[in-house]
Design a protein that fits this description.
Length: about 725
Amino acid sequence: MRCPPYEFESYRLRGLAMRESVPQRLSRLPELARNILWTWRPGTQALFSRLDPELWESTEHNPVRLLRETENLGRAAEDPATVALYNLAVQDLDRYLDGQGTWAGHVYPRTDARVAYFSAEFGLHESLPIYSGGLGVLAGDHVKSASDLGLPLVGVGILYAQGYFRQRISAEGRQEEVYEPFEPESRPISPALSPDGAPVIVGIALPGRELSLKVWKVEVGRTAIYLLDADLQENSEEDRLLTARLYGGGQRTRISQEMILGIGGVRALRALGLRPNVYHMNEGHAAFLGLERVRELVAAGETFEAATEKVAGSTVFTTHTPVPAGHDAFAPDLFDEFARDWPGELGTDREGLWALGRKREDWGEAFNMTVLAFNLSRGRNAVSKLHRDVSLDMWKYLFPERPDGEDPILAVTNGVHTWSWLAPELAELFDRHCGGRAWRREVENPAAWSFVAGIPSGELWRAHEGTKRGMARFVNARLELQKERTGRDVPQEINPEALTIGFSRRFATYKRATLLLSDPERLRAIIGGADRPVQFVFAGKAHPADEPAKAFIEALYWASEEDDLAGSLVILEDYDMNVTRHLVQGVDVWLNNPRRPLEASGTSGQKASLNGAPNFSVLDGWWPEAYNGRNGWAVGEPVEYASEEEGDRVDAESLYSTLENSLVPLFYDRDAEGVPLGWVRVMKEAIQTVAPTFSTQRMVQDYVHKLYVPRANRAG
Ligand SMILES: *Cc1c(COP(=O)(O)O)cnc(C)c1O
């Protein structure tokens, strides 16, 4: 695999189509804007903000658009402070790309794995809306940490021309989906180039026609993500829309997108001259990549059996959900139509192909992408220990007993990219209290975080109050815009002093966003305590076809309009990474109450804990591994209840009583300076126990040790 820094030269020279030409003194601004590294470099963000503060806000922190539209560059080149920030940012980029002293280079040089990481969504930043929720953000955080660690890894995904939808909530509380045109020129992407410098176009066969795919590149620090795009003139009008929307369309679109990702993705790597020795399927969406690799080996003379064995030997598969709807399955007629030529190309017959993916669904026989992924991988994992146990139960019928007794599915618990989620104000506080800023070099090491215990409680509390005020300003500005747009006049403004509880994630029904509403009187009593006010901030998108989840949004919306809840229970529209970042960095507590054991991991509570907002959650996903009785709170019992109704009842009772008896009293128990000492102890414990272990820095190292290195070089 080629090292991304060398590829830099070519596009550095091309520049951007801009209103102004870039002054010589700031000549590398386009490069700074194009590399997603800026999203975890506060200094580079300060540079963009200084260049054009208004555009920085109005473009939603999109430096590519800012550079295209700004008229300040000439002036900026004469401003010594801007030039100084620019020089620092360029130096930082060069040092970063140079890659001296990375983990993969020094600490663990046995990373002879060159990984291609395939995912249907990547959440890198709100200005590249090709993610829907936790799965995509995890993929983005994975690639960012691979870059930090110096791991040779590239991502492969899809460029959705309209992205995922933007969410509006109407005056009736209905979710409305708005799709905006995407303008590749305004995004941090550039055409991917082959080794001889030509733009890369690959083709795949769809029923009765060829589909052409353009390949784009996103620079993510030292790594890159390649994105496939069907919006090309040579494709029919209808086919150009195949990559229009993430999770849009019916089963025909879905199978086409999965062929684009899996088959088109492998072909793109070949055209780019990349030869990974480990292929990682992030969720079953990517499983066709295995069939394409079998096809290649069969074309080179291998038998179907030998080829499948080799492909599986060098493939890692991560399963992400026990929820049945999360596992794509195609009916025989549909699958056979799309796969008509595959048996011949794979050196097998229809039965041989179907044996790799057959599953009996409750609606009949189907070709199931999760089954295919399990059959075409030897490295397999679930995303928490509990989810590993649940997945083994679900899927163990697929696996023969292993002679070494090792589980056929391992657990690699999810984490978050520290630098993308930690508030810069807290990072500075940590720097001041950690000698030599050692925590930055060993984020994954719990010992490196022990200094947090020694931060004076008042200082940590004041820093949190600062980020909380920023969150409240953001929330109130958003509420004001919402109010203007819908024309409703119920006053909506949160109070930066009140105990603030955040809940923001995809609204899938198993996450039970409305559990809190189950006893309205009790909720009112908690919220309405005049001297101990409590408020809830909700945000989240429902999948456009998920009516029950949309009804949750409606219920929360109407609750937020009631006189005695208005301003104490609010729901923000247009949830995205920006909303999540503001909330996890500013609220006091993070609430998660899924129906156990359906939350495979969850990561938003990790982001909040890292920022000193302890997790208040059902003991599902990652939380049983982290919860120690001192770093947050549990909702309900760590059991499976006899019925959904019973689970809802017990969990709601626990939610209310823990709020009443623990959270609210502890939060409002202040010392003479107004600092809640007991509460700050929980904050510190949350930071110390969650930040290192539940970072993607730890997670990607686990992938390297447990899955990538063992799989490398098994492809022959
Ligand atoms: C982190 C994150 C999530 C994950 O939330 P869960 O509570 O783990 O489901 C979802 N969406 C966005 C935008 C995120 O940043």
